[in-house]
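Forum: Protein Structure Q&A
Topic: Joint prediction for protein chains with partners

I've read a bunch of threads here and the consensus seems to be that you should model interacting components together rather than docking separate models afterwards. I'd like to see that in practice. Below is the full input, 368 residues plus whatever partners are listed. Could one of the regulars post the assembled result?
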Amino acid sequence: MALAQAIMTSLLDADLSGSELARDFEKSMGFFWQSTHQQIYQELRKLADKGWLNKREVNQSGKPNKNVYGLTLAGREALADWVFGPTKVQPTKDELLLKLYNLSDDNVEHVIGEITHRREEVMQRLYLYEAIRRRHYDDPGSLPVRHKGVYLALASGIHQGEQFLSWCDEALTLLATVTGSSGH
Amino acid sequence: MALAQAIMTSLLDADLSGSELARDFEKSMGFFWQSTHQQIYQELRKLADKGWLNKREVNQSGKPNKNVYGLTLAGREALADWVFGPTKVQPTKDELLLKLYNLSDDNVEHVIGEITHRREEVMQRLYLYEAIRRRHYDDPGSLPVRHKGVYLALASGIHQGEQFLSWCDEALTLLATVTGSSGH
DNA sequence: CTAATCGATGCAATTTTTTGCACTAATAGC
DNA sequence: GCTATTAGTGCAAAAAATTGCATCGATTAG
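Posted by a regular:
Agreed with the consensus. Here's the joint model:
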């Protein structure tokens, strides 16, 4: 959707190669914007064609050469302009909710298992986010403007995680009554 | 992703035509699973070919004929089996978060505007959800099993909405300090 | 030395989603 | 009666995302 902008944003601070970007997308930026290396490579080429990125080949000792991309002036301007354009949201599609619509005595146990599992995953992620917050964003008020924004994106992830945990608790409580009363 | 299952789930209680489904997708099911009528029509044809749905043409007085689809036994079984399969999640991609990464003195005002706007939208939606909850799911504990599941999907939307509102408040508070101190 | 392995890069086919249009039949305005 | 509009259905091209491979060097095992 706005993969182009996600990539350019990653390049704001440092020039990166395709694989470096792909790795970055598993960390920070990737917390809320997933992408695969294939997509990234393609998009990089497009952006270079457009003149928003410049590419320079870096010879590496021992390893194959890597192509490092950096924002051009035009790229920076395009990115800055983009902020004022329309904002798309692609809402989550979670098959778990769909499964809930199909809840039955036959599958409650299974669904409970899935919820429990997801709860665990989200909790792990939440620990990570909290650790980052504590480490880098202890006092948001005193951060430079741009970092305030980055902090808020992180905060969004934290809020969502917490919300999910509390939903899980409600769900598990309610579903426990089903298995409990229906016996077996 | 699992559009097929989303459609079949909508057909659990009643047979529907393409346009009726499309309208449904703007309501209940569509609260957490968006789709367009084009996609729905295509998927309906595929599912009918697979033998999971049957199609019957209904002549309507005055209007063009409509094709009404219903679940076949095979369809019901496939749907029931699907619940036990792997669960995919397609996490939200929200350009607003990307914009936050690009926060600057030049665009804070604009971003604040966008957040405020979204806050309003989410609040509206939340009112709707709450109304549905109050009307149909007053006492979740006493609902039949399947409706408990449906209720939990709704509850998920409510939790998410509330989470978003509280995030908005944090964000607006923090960003107010930026515009406040930078003056002008 | 040769073959198997690995990490980084990338092409290409397939599938999914989006976008734009087109047809049909009723309805409304003139 | 003729044209414009609207609701329901659907095709098809384009764009985006996913999946599966393919290459290219260096590295390790035999």
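The longest helix of chain B spans residues 145-182.
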